[in-house]
Amino acid sequence: MKIIKAGLLLTSISLVNFAAFAQVDGVIYAGKVLVKPEAGALSKQTLVLEEGKVSAIHEGYVLPEKLGLKDVKLYDLKDYYVMPGMIDMHVHLTFERDKHANPHGWLTQDNADYALNSLPYLQKTLDAGFTTVRDLGANYHVIFPLKRAVEKQLIVGPRIFASGNAVSATGGHGDMHGYRHDLTDAMNTSIGICDGADDCQRAVREVIKYGADVIKITATGGVLSNTAAGLNQQLTDDELNAIVNTAHNLGRKVAAHAHGTRGVNAAIRAGVDSIEHGSYLDDESIALFKKHDTYLVPTLLAGYTVSKEVLSNPNMPKAIANKVREVAPVVERAFRNALKNNVNIAFGTDSGVSRHGDNAKEAQLMVEYGMTPKQVLVSATRSAAKLLGQEDTLGSLEVGKYADIIAIKANPEEDISALSEVSFVMKNGVVYKNQL
Ligand SMILES: [Zn+2]
């Protein structure tokens, strides 16, 4: 027994050493720093980092010795714009859409293949300055081991909050489509698929049992499922109420994929915490967002990416291509309407539909569609942290928050495209990218 234990210990130590991470305290000299995103950047500040958190902030550049610190690592970011690591509230880390890929490749892949294939996606996401993500829809066999491996520092990746399998109606957007029914039966895990209020209550309990930090539901049809079932409501009002009550009772928030107006409005009325996509919003939707303090996660980059693809991919199934053509023109209008009416907006890309690591392109679209750069910065930090329920630990660089810190050469308040050129990435006090 002792030998086995010693063996396990050696294995874990050698893996950590192999990855060459060290938890270091440090001091940052920041030329500009976004401590409270909604307040704008401060100039010439010294940040002290201890045990993976921001422990103090001082005006000016203070020598470590004056702070009683010896042998401490000093990061000179005097020529940089320093800000909290960005948060992407809607990613799919376990896949990346590739129009050249064998469409039946998934039939040959084991869960371990999916996990290993995902490693570069996690790395690219963190390299792009996204230190936290919310993964909304992945096989639980794959995403939760990845999340645990990041936490143990066995692999490089962002902090992950994940839903695992989505909760969906039979035949709904989160179910499996487009193959012979004996094949879909054989491949379906049925985790999260439910019909009727009681069954949907069971499904929520089930996905939480398998590790869900947040509940992803498909309240309406979706663009990329291979079924001509439209984009409207797929979960009934009773099912939505049962899902939200069960999730909230078990301490989980609910993220509702929703395009069609009726489905959006029904989901908000049932009390979901965020609407993902929200392509068709009417005046009632806006009023409901305001009344229930619901967040919109617009995922503009997903619409932009698939509308470009539909023009160049003749193999895109007809059911999907038709839905892309239907939804693409309305997304900008919905976003502008929400923005004009001060709906809570949290940053989210649906990466996986677009390429991992390109997450900051969403910021450019948000500005193109009417947001100020400052609003974008808040949406990717403070607002996202609030929607995650992590406002005490993430989303700003106030004392006590995680040392999730990125640095950028240009000022994103002046040109939002600067967010695509991140030079330095620290997560939990550990440096993962340093191209100063
Ligand atoms: Zn998605």
UniProtKB/TrEMBL annotation:
CDD domains: Met_dep_hydrolase_A
UniProt xrefs under SUPFAM superfamilies: Composite domain of metallo-dependent hydrolases (SSF51338), Metallo-dependent hydrolases (SSF51556)
Gene Ontology MF annotations: hydrolase activity, acting on carbon-nitrogen (but not peptide) bonds
Gene3D superfamilies linked: Metal-dependent hydrolases, Urease, subunit C, domain 1
Signal sequence range: 1-22
Domain of life the protein comes from: Bacteria
Keywords assigned by UniProt, alphabetized: Hydrolase, Signal
Database matches in InterPro entries: Amidohydro-rel, Metal-dep_hydrolase_composite, Metal_Hydrolase, Metallo-dep_Hydrolase, OTAase-like
Domain Amidohydrolase-related: 81-430
Protein name, per record: Amidohydrolase family protein
Species of origin: Pseudoalteromonas caenipelagi
Lineage: Bacteria, Pseudomonadati, Pseudomonadota, Gammaproteobacteria, Alteromonadales
